[in-house]
Amino acid sequence: MKITIDGLVKEDTYRTKGLRRQLMALLRSKGIQDENVLKAMEKVPRHFFMDSAFVEFAYSDQPFPIGEGQTISQPYTVGFQTQLLEVKPLMKVLEIGTGSGYQAAILHVMGAKVFTIERIHKLYLKAKNLLSTMGYHSIRCFYGDGNKGLPTFAPFDRILVTAGAPVVPETLIAQLAPGGILVIPVNSSSQVQIMKRIIKHPDGKMDIEDHGYFRFVPLLENKE
What we know:
By secondary structure, the protein is α/β, with parallel strands linked by helices. It has helices at about 15-30, 35-45, 75-85, 100-110, 120-135, 170-175; strands at about 1-5, 10, 65, 70, 90-95, 115-120, 140-145, 155-160, 175-185, 190-200, 205-215. Helix content is about 30%, strand content about 30%. The strands form three sheets. It has a seven-stranded mixed sheet with strand order 7-6-5-8-9-10-11. It has a two-stranded antiparallel sheet with strand order 1-2. It has a two-stranded antiparallel sheet with strand order 3-4.
């Protein structure tokens, strides 16, 4: 694959494909076992979503800045959250926090119908343009406050939040379909969050699971 974005040519070479295979082996060794997740991550060129200055680090297992005080998540974190979602083809998935667009691309490659919302207008425009240029035309990008979700398009089979929330927004629970799963990092008093998986049963009851500690940028209201 070769694309031109903002006048720059980016290419997915044999070398970058090989680096992705090595990264997938590392993620397996760290506990990411869902082969559908790993296959999707192996297909998506992560370096397309990063500034050219960081291309050499695109396939190391660490986050990197993407501007506006935001980051592209560590590959392990992307794999971990996506694995918790248990995504199946044709599921409606809402992502809160588009960021670079990388996570949305992974969900799309897994066959999901992806809706993604970003509160920072510059990042929204950049991700929307990049995803379209890469041929991911069915990903629906929105500019707005992720805390409010997308009630017009609800309910969603899966909801993924890629920013640290002080509490679980009730608006997102309301937009989750019966039998749906919400994955969200939560902590009201620290920069380190607990990854929570919330399963909403048809009778409205919920199972809430804790899945370890992670570090995310904060989930904020849209002030623009």
